[in-house]
Amino acid sequence: MDRTRQLWIWLLSLLAVSFAVLLLVGRDISIQAPPLPAKVVTANGETVFTRAEMQRGRQVWQSMGGMQLGSIWGHGGYVAPDWSADWLHRESLALLDLWAQRDLGGAFESLNEEHKALLQRRLQTEMRRNTFEASTDTITISNDRAVAIERVAKHYVNLFGNDPATAELRENYAMKNDTVPDAGHRAAMTSFFWWTAWAATTERQGRTTTYTNNWPSEPLVGNRPPSSTFIWSAFSVTFLLAGIALLGWHHAVTHGRREKEHDLPAKDPLREIAVTPSMRATAKYFWVVLALFLAQIMLGAMTAHYQVEGQLVYGYEAAEILPYSITRTWHTQLAVLWIATAWLGTGLYIAPAISGHEPRFQALGANILWACLLIIVVGSFAGQWLAVMQKLGLERNFWFGHQGWEYVDMGRFWQWFLFIGLMLWLVLVGRALWPALKEKSESRHITMLFFLSAVAIGLFYGAGLFWREHTALSMIEYWRWWVVHLWVEGFFEVFATAVIAFLFTRLGLIPTPTATVAVLFATIIFMAGGVLGTLHHLYFAGTSIAVLALGASFSALEVVPLAYIGFEAYEHWKLSSATPWMQRYKWPVMFFLAVSFWNLVGAGLFGFLINPPLSLYYMQGLNLTPLHGHTALFGVYGMLGVGLVLFCLRGMLPNLIWNEGVLKTSFWCFNIGLALMALLTLLPLGTLQLTAAIDKGYWYARSAEFMQQPVVDLLVWLRVPGDIVFSAGAVALAWFVASLWLRPRSDDSEAQIAQ
């Protein structure tokens, strides 16, 4: 059995086992999810909340932006509080004050330490005891707790309305006035907030940890990291070191093996590829990429500025037209959409280039798919705006408005539309690749991996269709991370690896057998941790300790291949100067080098910073999370998308002279701007929040009291230089691409410039 076949067997076996375990864990999550009772009653039998009210409250929360305005269980935006932690702290204080006033004749804060300690122990007993009765599907609470709930609910009813008493807090949270105009809807939403806090402080039956594994940190109720977070954090570091050692051993053993001499081509082989009509049609995809990218940057700057001025943007009352929750929604959605569009366009361009086959009506299919993409973007964004402005109605919100789940916010109708579009893309790529898939050539393995990754890209977005409007929150989080982690961070990575391997082999720089083994091995290493590493997002989402253990172990393995990313970067650097004509591809290769750097820093260092359970217990939802998110999402997948686009443009317009100075400006502005953004704002602000969360509790690190300090304002303003530099890079890239059509310069007078 040859080595290539062995690697295929290993890869397919690994994927089969990994997904079997992931599906079994999903079944466990569905069983272990916190119960949503038919009703919540007092000891006197009075009904406090009903299931219908809590479900309707979640619908209201989703329609106003959901995770884009504050967060639930740590997942979501960073300016407004985490509503679960905020409610938990407010309810605890309300109950302590109620007891202190009634039983000890003074406010809780005025009591001596002994009395405070006594009341706090009483509070922990009250809040942590599980009173859910499965037989009656009911949660029973004390009469005192019902009074405390009523007091806290009034605060939220006022906050999400237009009460002058909470106007300053709305401004601090970047909330528009009358975020939820309907008073009945506001009241229903408080029941949902209460339930998320109840799950975060109520111990599972027969356990000493809550449904969210004691998250968030809250000293008043005794929420502190359970022993499992310490144990599995230690094991995750051990697994990381062991994985790096094994990969180092493998590299040492295989690196010295002699390979056959490889003659480099005297001229650029890609110039000989005939550009077909469907390949030319992908140009419009790359124009859309730039438009979406520029829009995302503009909305990102606007979203960041809301953190300073609350409801204003440079003095203008923008919140009444484009509130924070909608600008953040569009900013996060566009990040995925423009990167995905870049890779979809690359797939449509590369498939005929690999096979040399242009199927009938292929260009028409590419054009129809492009039109569908525009309809999806415009339609879904319009629905989200109508939802956030509370003009759509709860009955239509799930299908056409704002689902409220970060990165998968678009309504279900638009999700289905996009999924069907991806199926069309898969058909177009597959039919163009079919002749190459049937050939028994050296490159068939890379072609097969390219096609399988395209299949996975098409199918795995469908995970976002597996939940319904009232599916348990824990199960929605499970499927949501299939989309965000497996679809974006997983199979797009494999797709890009296969594309890059094809490009370098087609350029004649790497022998095809060598590239095949390298790509298969890299995919195995990445997917070994990547599939089950999805679970590290679910430590505190109403899941069991098994999820925490598996997530900690395998997410550590995700970092293993990144420890040797320098070897990949060095190989790419060598290839960039292997022959004189490779100067034509200098900047695409430079973007691939940037991918290697940010893979190590953003995905590796900043990713592992927050991945171990003990770290994430305190860091989830703090600014150390977007530190990893920004540097990994753009630094890796964004840079990769730009590099692939440039490769396609070089092949599409082979005879044009490139403006190297503009590309150089774009490249360095992107990297310097991203570094400034990370080092001047996200890292120091996240570190300050981490200290606050450890010292005083998670609620404080996300509170207006903490976030409105002068030092926080300064750190947010320090993001401006990085944003300006980064934006200059985007403008330079847009100008470079536009100039290829508007001001083309040919190095061959007989060249036919594509229009």
Automatic annotation (TrEMBL):
One of its GO terms (biological process) is aerobic respiration. The chain crosses the membrane at residues 7-26, 230-249, 285-306, 330-351, 363-387, 413-434, 446-467, 479-505, 517-539, 545-567, 587-610, 630-649, 661-683, 724-742. One of its GO terms (cellular component) is membrane. The keyword S-adenosyl-L-methionine does not apply. Residues 37-216 form the Nitric oxide reductase subunit B cytochrome c-like domain. Keywords: Membrane, Transmembrane, Transmembrane helix. It holds the Pfam family NorB_cytochrome_c-like. One of its GO terms (molecular function) is cytochrome-c oxidase activity. This is Nitric oxide reductase subunit B cytochrome c-like domain-containing protein.
